[in-house]
Amino acid sequence: MPIDSSFTSEQRDSIKIKSFIFHVIEVDKKPANKLVSVVEIDEVTLLPAQEKFFTDHFKHTAEGTQFLFTTYGGNLKDKGLDLIQNPSKFLQISKDAAREFTGHHKAQMSDGVFVFSLVEYDFAPGQPKHALFLLKINKQSSFPYSYDTDPTTGKMIATVDASHTSLVQDRKAISKSAIIDLSGEFSWDVLAVDTKDGPGITDYFRDFMEVTPKDKGAILTDKANRTVRRWANTAEKTESFSDGENYNTVCGRSFEYLNSNSTFKTDDFIKYVVKDSNPAKEKALRNTLGEKLKKEGVYGQSFSIVPEAIRSGDKAVKYITDEGVEISYTGDQSKSRIEIDRQEHQTVMTITTRKLKTNVK
Q1: By CB count within 10 A, which of 49, 282, 320, 357 is most buried?
Q2: What is the three-class DSSP state of 346?
């Protein structure tokens, strides 16, 4: 069965660049012309630190939004599969892709480079798989490159300034990036990140790759919240919580995160939801929740949160005393100014409020 989640941390850490090239995009300085030319590069050499910059950004892109190819899509995947069987085609296919990329841009484009690379990673120990990794990098001081024709071979050779350390530290120049799956092991076809606000991508980048979002934000918002509730229910039954943590506190923070953020980020979500004063126990709990989110296909994704998608019965949490008193609230328990002190023979609940309403229908 295809895997819904993104790459695991082990898969990301095993990434190796097998083939790498970039082609230079130059824009006519007269805005009215909107002319874009592609300087086709034949060879690029990367130093180890520069290669690490790109493998690190692969890991960042692996947390991007999931997309599927449209009915007429899949051209990039076909090219990637062709490359695996025929490595000698790499240069020509990369040049074709660069021209197609610039051809889809309708507005004014920035000078820069279009990176085309074939990468390999360990899907499982001893099982290498491949993916295409594409980037558009705007021309900035943080990415200093130059190119010239080799008088001996006639090849266009590009170099990245080795004296510039900012490349390793600055990702601001990268405007777009995408991973095209070539393994067939995942339920998604493409992972993509764009500098535009939110988890979506620009129209021309989407049209170039011929993709559509796999899961809508509403579906994933509800799925993330329900996954936490099921996980917390199991954790409470197995007495995994401590330090005043329980089903209600955890589920309350899940709703709080989803109701107060616009974009979902897995690691931030898990860290906000799961808290424990014991670092080892906290780490273990976060890992188990992460595994549940992976199973549900939420882990590693970035998407627009839709709070309205959370089912009405999954928003509030409730305490009931032995005396039949019900205390219901939504969100982070501490923000509701509720304090609970579990003593030897009784539990003291303190609720601090500015005003108490009565005769509520």
Answers
A1: 282
A2: coil
Strand, helix or coil at 358?
coil
Among the listed ranges 27-41, 51-65, 236-250, 339-353, which one has the minimum average pLDDT value? 27-41
**Burial class of 48 by CB neighbour count within 10 A (0 to 12, 13 to 18, 19+):** exposed
* Distance, CA of 213 to CA of 341 (rounded, Å): 47
Type of residue at 280: A
How far apart, in Å, do the first and last CA atoms of the chain sit? 50
Q: DSSP letter string over 268-281?
A: HHHHHH---SSHHH
pTM to 2 decimal places? 0.68
| Per-domain boundaries in the chain | 9-213, 217-351
Burial of 359 (0-12, 13-18, 19+ CB in 10 A): exposed
Tokens of 183: 């393994």
pLDDT greater at residue 45 or residue 22 = 22
Concatenating the DSSP letter of every residue in 97-132 gives HHHHHHHT--SPPPSEEEEEEEEEEEEETTEEEEEE
Considering only CA atoms, which of 126, 129, 97 is closest in space to residue 114?
A: 97
Distance CA 162, CA 160 (A): 6
Q: What band does 93 get if pLDDT is binned at 50, 70 and 90?
A: very high
Q: How far apart (Å, rounded) are the C-alpha atoms in residues 322 and 297?
A: 39
Q: Please count the other Cβ atoms lying within 10 Å of the Cβ belonging to residue 85.
A: 7
Q: Are 67 and 193 in contact (CB under 8 A)?
A: no
Q: State the DSSP H helix or E strand holding residue 134, giving kind and residue range, or none if neither.
A: strand 127-138
| Max CA distance (Å), the chain | 91
What is the radius of gyration, based on Cα positions, of the chain?
Answer: 25
Residue 229 CA to residue 250 CA, distance in Å, equals 8
Q: What gap in Å lies between CA 114 and CA 40, rounded to an integer?
A: 10
Mean pLDDT lowest among 258-262, 284-288, 322-326: 322-326
* Closest listed residue to residue 134, CA positions, set 180, 70, 91, 100: 180
Strand order from edge to edge, sheet including 190-194: 36-39, 16-27, 112-124, 127-138, 174-181, 190-194, 65-69, 211-213
Q: What does the pLDDT read at residue 83?
A: 96
Per DSSP, the three-state class of 156 is strand
